[in-house]
Each structure stands twice: as structure tokens, then as C-alpha cells.
Amino acid sequence: MKEEVAKGIRMVVEEKTRKQVNLKAMQLSEKIKLKGEKATDEEVKKLLKLLC
Predict the structure, then answer these.
(1) For the chain, how many structural domains are there in total?
(2) What domain of life is recorded for the organism (predicted)?
(3) Of 16, 20, 42, 51, which is the most exposed, with the fewest CB atoms less than 10 Å away?
(4) How far is CA 19 from CA 5, 24, 38, in A?
(5) pLDDT digits (tens, 9 = 90+) for 8-52
(6) What residue numbers bound the domain in which 8 lies?
(7) CA 21, CA 41: separation in Å to the nearest integer?
């Protein structure tokens, strides 16, 4: 009985941890994407200054 309860608790904790890791990964991915877009925008502005 104790083993079954412990197994159930482990499953819940693992699922919660997995969801937290997935959420953090998505947030980090979005931050990286935004930084990339900002860097690209800055490079385009530099090129436009050189051309104009």
C-alpha cells in the first residue's frame, strides 16, 4: 500500500516538474526569438544608414 501511494505521489510530482520544464523552455524560446528579431532590426537600420 505504501509503495502504491509513493508511486502515485512520484507520478504527480514528475508530471508537475515536466510541465514546469516545458513552460520554462517555451518562455526561453520566445525570449531568444525576440532578441533575434531585435538584433535583425538593428542590423537593418545600420544597413539603411549606410545606403542612405
Answers:
(1) 1
(2) Eukaryota
(3) 51
(4) 21, 9, 29
(5) 999 999 999 999 999 999 999 999 898 888 888 888 888 888 888
(6) 1-52
(7) 30
